[in-house]
Design goal:
It contains 2 helices and 24 strands. The chain is mainly β. It has one domain: Jelly Rolls, CATH 2.60.120. The protein has a 7-stranded mixed β-sheet with strand order 1-3-4-11-6-9-12, with no helix packed on it. Strands 2-21-18-23-15-14-13 form a 7-stranded antiparallel β-sheet. The longest helix has 8 residues.
Amino acid sequence: MEIRNAIHLKDFKTYTTERTRQEFLIQDLFVPGEIKLVYSHFDRMIAGGVCPDKPIQLEASKEIGSGFFLERREMGVINIGPKGVVTVDGEEYSLDRTDGLYVSMGSKDIVFASEDSGNPAHFYLLSGPAHKEYAITRIEKSNVETTGLGSAGESNIRTIYKYIHPDGVRSCQLVMGMTMLEPNNVWNSMPCHTHERRMEVYLYFDLPDDAVVFHFMGEPDETRHIVVQNEEAVISPSWSIHSGVGTANYTFIWGMIGENQTFTDMDAVAMADLR
């Protein structure tokens, strides 16, 4: 498991492009036959990817100090690749592309597998500390609560899919979902915001091979950017904006943990205040 330490906002202002990428960008999430896990000290979020060309078990590690991975944690999973199966304590949950799964604290044996080992699933996972068990729930995209936002004039027509949230699939801390931009729309989360109460991670996918997203972060009055390619993720501290613009339309998965689960609890940033 890779460790990413918490970063002070004043120190961040001195970072080069390469240092910024080292601290906040997560790459190589879906290597066949491997589990990639990144432990962030921002709210102790774990982000990861599993690409099983044969069944792979999720194991505990020294970094979380527990007997099994979800002994004191919960987890959300969304499959962004071909069909796969997640087995939790002997119960199989089949996930088509963009289907999700909430896995509760206390779940012990978790195995990821692909329906076709030659064309493996891409399971993206987020995990945060938990204090209570909620029901393990398979989440079909077609049944997820949605919100439409944006306009053609602002190039940001998009649909927000809320997978794990207080009015849907319940969890202790984790709030997780997906935002899909319509063709010819490229901006996300602009006008931008921060939320001092929560950190967030964005995973960008469905980007063409020759396309990139310029992900903006930092304090509103002193921003930086990271160039992100397909199936790469960015860690966003609570003090940072998190917004992006692509050279083509794309989809991204967002996930938050922190002080509350209120999706609308945001500190809006006026466009005139951005620097």
